[in-house]
Amino acid sequence: MQEEAPRRRIHAWKWAALLLGVLLLTWAVAAVAVHFIAESRWAAMKADWQILLEEVRKHGQSRAPLRGDPIDGNAWDDYAVALAEVRSLYDLESQAAPRYLREAPQSNRKLVERVLARHPSMIESVRRAALRGRVNLSLDWKEGALTLPSRHGSATVAPLAVCRSRFFAEEGRLADAVQLLVETCRFAADIDHVENMELPLDELRELLRSGVLKGEDLTRLDKDLELLDLEYPRRGNRAALELVAFGAQLVKTGHSVTVQLVGLHADPEDALWRYGFSAHLMKAEAFSTIAAAVKQLRQADERPWAESRDLLKKLSAELAAHRNPIIQTAPEEVLVSDQLHRGHRAQLRILRVATHYKATGELLDLDDPFGGKLLRRQAEDSVKVWSIGPECIDHGGIGAFHFDPDVKDIVLEVKR
User: Fold this and answer.
1) Residue 376 pairs with which residues in a beta bridge?
2) How many domains is the chain built from?
């Protein structure tokens, strides 16, 4: 009996060793399998990202100049000069134009005039770019990241251009004033910051309502606004840009999962175990899932506003509830509403109707980006044009031209 006990213990140790060996082998096979799958999906993700990058680079490769024959070169090279010049401004200088346009104190005007005199290349670049027959954003790597157009830069250049236009008008140079406003709209559209179109569009509205534009100025503006409408950017284009930048961040960070990727509310280590502790696998899933959502949003750009809005809500809710913490941040980083794009396009089309009416006496029948047709009410010598806005409710032309989701209709009334 004493010899049997050691034998049993040895037998138990053999089984334990065998079980451990099987577990280690299983773990090794699983690790190899996870590594193989992760690297395969990672390679596929980078290939898909590269294809998207090239697609975005080619977007808008050629276009008609605003006037005359096109000049050689890429409009983005001119915009890059303007945006680079913004970085040389002091904070007070960069805020001078918005404050002047908002408050109009004479002290601010002097500062605006000094900024324009010291940095003429900003306005010159915008004007020159409008004559180019080609525009391609220079999406290049810089310090391991993908550079996108600066929101701050465009928000500084556009108000300065509007100020310069207003000064032109005061000097009696109406043609230059109108052309610069149209060129500024094209600048904002080209770099896909449509929010910076509102100031020049509002300035055009004031010129139309004042009655100072006549004859050839109205005819030229009518054609220019039609061209701006034809090349107006879609929300999906911006979403694709953000997706490219997002993919670049994934590639740059490689095997690490940072707080910038998952947000402050999540601990990446708590989720990595679901992916065999492979950051590549987690990132590949995140990119493919978000890319599929962006594809749906791009397709929804041409659908009625209500469908597009509901799709965005649905996708945002689904991604926010996803088990992958990188995907959970997507609603904030990539998925954006096309409300602004539609709102400013509604303003543009309202201006088209008003300008064409003043130039010809005829009323254009244009689609309302928020559904149906733009509504019109014509009197003996005037016309009121309005969009129903994001509420999708017709308030009978009660509202304002300024686009605000809380305002009823987007409205403009002009006299012939």
Assistant:
1) 385
2) 3
